[in-house]
Amino acid sequence: MLRRIISRSQHGESVCLVDKGFNELLDVHDDTFSELFHLLTDVVKVSIVINREDFIPEDLLSEADMFVLGCPTRNHLSSDDIETIAKYVREGGNLLVITDAGGDLAHQSNLNDLVAEFGIEIEATTVRDTRNVGSAVSPVIENINVSHTTNKNVMRLVVGGGTTLSVVWPAVPLFSTGKSSVVEQYSPSDSHPWKIMKVGENYPMAAAT
After folding, report:
1. So what's the pLDDT on residue 12?
2. What share of the chain is helix, strand, coil (3-state, %, to 5)?
3. Which one of 30, 33, 62, 83 has the minimum C-beta count within 10 Å?
4. What residue ranges of the chain are covered by domains with CATH 3.40.50?
């Protein structure tokens, strides 16, 4: 079996299953995330488990408190995978879906087939802003839904390579573009693939149900 535990805290009470079977961009071995995973395993006491199968194992998923899909690339979830994940969420599991600039179109994936189950559509866009941390595609976001429990004590954040979303009930936005944001749409067939689509605030960049 290709499944293996990357890090299990000694007194872990929660299990986070991170998928790597669909060529995800999120890499738990990347030094960029070392501080995050130290916080999760050593401070919060979360056990991190990796799935490297090319499908979503229902038995492994059923043992997890959270499942993370970290931006699949050049891979598609099967209808069985989508149903397995949707069932997991309906039965009380937590799902975190991460994408990158351009969404499914840029990454040759089908995350929209999954998130549509929850009232969310990932748009083929990226967000630029003059208020950033050294790069226009790393905007500082302050338009945050502070009433949502996920955003407790969050005042601002940086979203590198973010996309915009279309959100319908029961999904609600977690944070959105600001007044100086510019949303560009990805059209790979054009000579200039990124074109301004809309400008301004309140275009959702993350959502929850």
Report:
1. 54
2. 20, 30, 45
3. 30
4. 1-98
